[in-house]
Amino acid sequence: MTSLSANAAPLPGAPFVCYQNGQLMVEGVALSELARQHGTPLFVYSKAAILAALAAYQRGLAGREALICYAMKANSSLAILKLLADAGCGFDIVSAGELERALAAGATPSKIVFSGVGKTRAEMRRALEAGVGCFNIESMAELDVLSDVAVACGQTAPVSIRVNPNVDAKTHPYISTGLKGNKFGISHDEALAAYRHAASLPGLRVVGIDCHIGSQITESAPYLEAMDRVLDLVTQIEAAGIPIHHIDFGGGLGIDYNGDTPPAADVLWQQLLGKLDARGFGNRKIMIEPGRSLVGNAGVCLTEVLFLKPGEQKNFCIVDAAMNDLPRPALYEAFHRIVPLAEANPAAQTTTYDVVGPVCESGDWLGRDRALAVQQGDVLAVLSAGAYCMSMASNYNTRPRAAEVLVDGASARVIRQREAVQDLWRGESV
After folding, report:
1. ω into residue 41 within 30 of 0, thus cis?
2. Which positions are annotated as active-site residues?
3. Pair 146, 114: CB distance under 8 Å
4. Helix (H) / strand (E) containing 230
5. Could you give phi then psi for residue 66, rounded to 5 degrees?
6. Among 41, 116, 137, 199, which one is least packed by beta carbons within 10 Å?
7. For the whole model, what pTM was predicted?
8. Residue 400: which domain range?
9. CATH of the domain at 186
10. Does residue 4 form part of some domain?
11. Cα separation values, 47 from 41, 325, 341, 351, Å
12. 354 - beta bridge partners?
């Protein structure tokens, strides 16, 4: 046993997620009270944290023609989409389901960009019918299919082509998207030919260029390198007589999970805009697609300690949240801070645990080797749980998905009811 404080480092999500008078709070609401009212597992989000993260992008892009399209795959809960739509955001979508979610939340169709490597003809037709602002195209074959669909619909589809700049984002390989070996985009060397082909097709109208190099990026250098490569291409494409009206620079900016220090969004974008201006492209419309950086540190997941299980090699803290609720550790060996709802006494004796869930998989863990002063029945908070948690949640082991709560100052409301077990086989037959 050791005598370590669980709260030695500042909490990700501060000042919106922090201890006040010894209790862990989201804004003005005690998480212990939310756990008591709504049970666990429970996702809790801070409205103020989301809007503060958005404000950093808005400051960085101030005075420019710009559109922030939230990458809704990070967290697609309707209330969060509505919050961002009301704040002026568009949306980056990758499926017809996400399109319908965005529209249900009040999105402006012309502010929606449709990304993704595998759009179906039906999805294309629906997006054309809805009037999305742009299709981000990722292959030569997709250009041909979208043109055919648009012609059949009596429309012209606005397109940008996602260019793969072969830039190392210096992130986990599963969330790196801008290297030659990734499935995304058209290679830098083939981009000009792709634009010429797009310009020749009757159902397409070229409006921009798109680039996205990865996720959880914590350095400026990959963005700056990618910007140079994209602008080189814009010069070539326009020299071929094809105007580029907007530059979509994707998203991917990281957050603090474990002492990570990504650049602030406003600082990063002042750097990128400086490069844009220096290259003579400062008058172009800028589009960006942030996801994790808007919502990641705005969310926590509350989970109850079911059992403490000492072992010969490991001690296990078994909780009621699992890999189906929080898949990132199982998928990426990702780190999330795990802290108690009552601030730990620095002198308290702690034990080192692997924090694990009830799912029948060895990969069902939320945190390894965590020093905790914890007892059966306590509730823990898994931090930085606002992105790629609930949106990736599953019903594995026939586990209903958790409820979600949105906090606004001193008030909190349920924005997603906890699933009932009976919901899980609705539509099935025996």
Report:
1. yes
2. 360
3. no
4. helix 221-239
5. -145, 150
6. 199
7. 0.93
8. 17-46+296-425
9. 3.20.20.10
10. no
11. 20, 21, 20, 34
12. 316
